[in-house]
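Deliverable D2.4 — example input (C-alpha cells):
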C-alpha cells in the first residue's frame, strides 16, 4: 500500500466561505476570516481544505455563478488573500482545493455578454442557443431546471433561447466547442501556478450533452420534462475529463487531488471515472445516499429514511469501487441538510451521541471522508419560522412554485425546514456570544439559536465533545492503515436499526457497530466477543456486543 496516493489516507474539510468566519464586520464570511481559523483546522487534523467559490460573482447562487474565474469577489477578499491562504495552509502542511464551476458561468461573465450580443459574435457558440420551436411550447426542449421553471431563457436581443440547467443567471457553457475547453484548461493551469493543490468540480458530469438536444420524459404534476438522461454523463464525458486531466493535471509534478460532483452517477460510471487507468479524476461525489429520503418529485418531497436502504446503497458503493477506483464519503455539504438532524437526532438527550455515531460510521468506511464546516460540532438544522428566514434561491423558488401550485404554507415550510440548503449555510458557531463569534456585524443569514450550547468554545477542550470525537476519528485514519486501506464487508444487511461492518488489512480487523435508535440492541457476532474497544461514544462502552441508545463502537482484533 506504500504506493497508494496520499489522498487515500487524507481527510478533507469543506469551507463555505460566506458562513465560516467574518473578519471585517460586514456580516459575510471572508478569506481573512478563514485564515484566522487555520490553527483550528490544523488542530482538528484535516489534511485538505476545500473552499466553495470565492470568485467574482453577482451572487445569484452564492458564488456558484462566476463572472470572473481569475479574481476574488470583494465580499471575500482579494487575490493576495488567497495567496496568503495557500501559503499559510502549506506552512501547516495542509493543502487547498478550490471549487471549479465550469458547467456554467454567470450571465455577467464577459464570455456570456459577448455570446448574447449577436448571432455572429465569435463567442456565440460558447453557450447553447436555440430558436423557438413552435408557439404552444416554444422552448427548444421540455427540460425542467434544477431551480424550477424551464432550462431555457428567452433573450429578446437576438430572438433565441439560451440553456441553463440551474438558474437563468447560470448559462451552460458549450463544451463541444474546443475553444471553451482550452479557455477553461488555461484558467485551471493559472490556479495551479498560484499554488492550489486540487479541484472540486461542480456538476462536472453535466458538461457533455447528448446531441441533438431532445425532450425528456414528462414529470408528474409538472409542465416540464426530465432532461437528465440527456445531460448526465453524456456521450463525451469521459473524453472531456480525460482531456482535462491531460491538459491540466498530468503535467503538474505535485500529486494533485480532484473530485467531481456528479448527480445521478452510477457505481459503474464512477468506477470508470476514478480508475487510475482512465486518467480522469480521483473520486466522485455521488448522490444516491442523499436521495434516499426524497420522493419522486425531488428533495422537498419528504420520505422517511430506512436504514436498510442506506446500508444497501453505501455498501454497494464500497463493493463497486473496491478493486479499482475510489470513494468519497460525505453526509454533509453546503447543499444538504445537517446530518445530525437528518440521519441522527436533534433530541437533546441523544444529539451529541448521534453526531458522534454518524462521524464514526462515515469515517470508518473506505474512501476519503469530507467534513463539512460545523459537522464536527454536531451543528443542526435551523428552526426556520417562515420564508423570510431563508436566503437560498432554490428554497425561495420552491416556495414560490409550491405556493402557486396551491400547497399549504405550513406543509411547504415543513419541507423547507427538513431539506432547505440554508440549513447548512447558517454561520459556524464559534462561541456563545450574540452572533456566535461569526461576525461583529449583522449576519447575512440567522445564526442558529442553539449556538449558546453548540459551539467551538465549549467543545475545544472538552474530551467528550463531538469535536474531540472527530479529532480522534481523523487521527485514527492517519494512524491505522486498516482504516484507509482495509477491505470492507457489510454485516447484518437486513437489520433495521444496527449498522455493522468490518474492515480488514494485513492481519488487522475492525468491527464497526452503530445503533441508529434508542432501544438497546444486541448483535450476534460471537467471534468478536472480547475484542478490544478502540473507539466508542459512551465513556464506559464495553465490547459485550450490546449497544445502548445511539451507541457506536469500533472494535479491533
Ligand atoms: O450542486 C448541484 C446539485 O445537483 C445540487 O445538489 C443542487 O443543490 C440541487 O440540485 C438543488 O436542489 C452544485 C453546487 O454544489 C450547488 O451549490 C450549486 O447551486 C449548483 O451546483 C449549481 O452550480
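Example output (designed residues):
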Amino acid at each position: 500500500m506504500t504506493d497508494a496516493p496520499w489522498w487515500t489516507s487524507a481527510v478533507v474539510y469543506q469551507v463555505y466561505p460566506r458562513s465560516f468566519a467574518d473578519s471585517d464586520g460586514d456580516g459575510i464570511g471572508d478569506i481573512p476570516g478563514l485564515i484566522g481559523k487555520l490553527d483550528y483546522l490544523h488542530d482538528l487534523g484535516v489534511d485538505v481544505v476545500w473552499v466553495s467559490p470565492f470568485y467574482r460573482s453577482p451572487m445569484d447562487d452564492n458564488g456558484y455563478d462566476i463572472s470572473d474565474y481569475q479574481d476574488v469577489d470583494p465580499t471575500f477578499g482579494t487575490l493576495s488573500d488567497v495567496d496568503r491562504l495557500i501559503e499559510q495552509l502549506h506552512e501547516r502542511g495542509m493543502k487547498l482545493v478550490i471549487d471549479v464551476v465550469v458547467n456554467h458561468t454567470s450571465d455577467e461573465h464577459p464570455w456570456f455578454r459577448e455570446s448574447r450580443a449577436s448571432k455572429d459574435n465569435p463567442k456565440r457558440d460558447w453557450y447553447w442557443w436555440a430558436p423557438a420551436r413552435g408557439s404552444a411550447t416554444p422552448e427548444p426542449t421540455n427540460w425542467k431546471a434544477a431551480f424550477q421553471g424551464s432550462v431555457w431563457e428567452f433573450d429578446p436581443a437576438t430572438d433565441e433561447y439560451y440553456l441553463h440547467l440551474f438558474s437563468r443567471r447560470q448559462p451552460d457553457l458549450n463544451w463541444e466547442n474546443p475553444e471553451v475547453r482550452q479557455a477553461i484548461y488555461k484558467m485551471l493551469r493559472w490556479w495551479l501556478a498560484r499554488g492550489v493543490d486540487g479541484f472540486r468540480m461542480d456538476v462536472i458530469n453535466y458538461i457533455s450533452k447528448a446531441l441533438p438536444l431532445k425532450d425528456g420524459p414528462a414529470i408528474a404534476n409538472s409542465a416540464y420534462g426530465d432532461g437528465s438522461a440527456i445531460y448526465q454523463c453524456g456521450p463525451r464525458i469521459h473524453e472531456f475529463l480525460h482531456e482535462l486531466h491531460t491538459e491540466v493535471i498530468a503535467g503538474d509534478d505535485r500529486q494533485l487531488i480532484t473530485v467531481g460532483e456528479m448527480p445521478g452517477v452510477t457505481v459503474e460510471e464512477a468506477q470508470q471515472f476514478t480508475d487510475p487507468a482512465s486518467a480522469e479524476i480521483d473520486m466522485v461525489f455521488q448522490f444516491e445516499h442523499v436521495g434516499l429520503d426524497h420522493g419522486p418529485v425531488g428533495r422537498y418531497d419528504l420520505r422517511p429514511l430506512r436504514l436498510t436502504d442506506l446500508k444497501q446503497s453505501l455498501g454497494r458503493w464500497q463493493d463497486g469501487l473496491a478493486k479499482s477506483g475510489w470513494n468519497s464519503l460525505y453526509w454533509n455539504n453546503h447543499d444538504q441538510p445537517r446530518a445530525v438532524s437528518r440521519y441522527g437526532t436533534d433530541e437533546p438527550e441523544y444529539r451529541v451521541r448521534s453526531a458522534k455515531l454518524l462521524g464514526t460510521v462515515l469515517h470508518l468506511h473506505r474512501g476519503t471522508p469530507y467534513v463539512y464546516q460545523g459537522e464536527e460540532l454536531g451543528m443542526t438544522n435551523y428552526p426556520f419560522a417562515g420564508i423570510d428566514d431563508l436566503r437560498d434561491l432554490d428554497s425561495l423558488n420552491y416556495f414560490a412554485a409550491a405556493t402557486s401550485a396551491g400547497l399549504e404554507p405550513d406543509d411547504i415550510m415543513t419541507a423547507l425546514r427538513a431539506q432547505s440548503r440554508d440549513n447548512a449555510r447558517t454561520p459556524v458557531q464559534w462561541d456563545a456570544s450574540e452572533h456566535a463569534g461569526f461576525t461583529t456585524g449583522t449576519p447575512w443569514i440567522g445564526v442558529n439559536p442553539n449556538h449558546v450550547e453548540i459551539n467551538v468554545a465549549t467543545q475545544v477542550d472538552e474530551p467528550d465533545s463531538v469535536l474531540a470525537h472527530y479529532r480522534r476519528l481523523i487521527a485514527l485514519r492517519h494512524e491505522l492503515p486498516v482504516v484507509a486501506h482495509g477491505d470492507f464487508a457489510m454485516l447484518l444487511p437486513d437489520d433495521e436499526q444496527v449498522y455493522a461492518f468490518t474492515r480488514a488489512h494485513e492481519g488487522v480487523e475492525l468491527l464497526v457497530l452503530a445503533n441508529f435508535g434508542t432501544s438497546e440492541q444486541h448483535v450476534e457476532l460471537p467471534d468478536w466477543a472480547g475484542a478490544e474497544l478502540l473507539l466508542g461514544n459512551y465513556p464506559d462502552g464495553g465490547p459485550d456486543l450490546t449497544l445502548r441508545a445511539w451507541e457506536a463502537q469500533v472494535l479491533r482484533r
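Residues 61, 64, 101, 146, 166, 202-203, 261, 263, 299, 334-335, 394, 421 surround 1-O-alpha-D-glucopyranosyl-D-fructose (CB under 6 Å).
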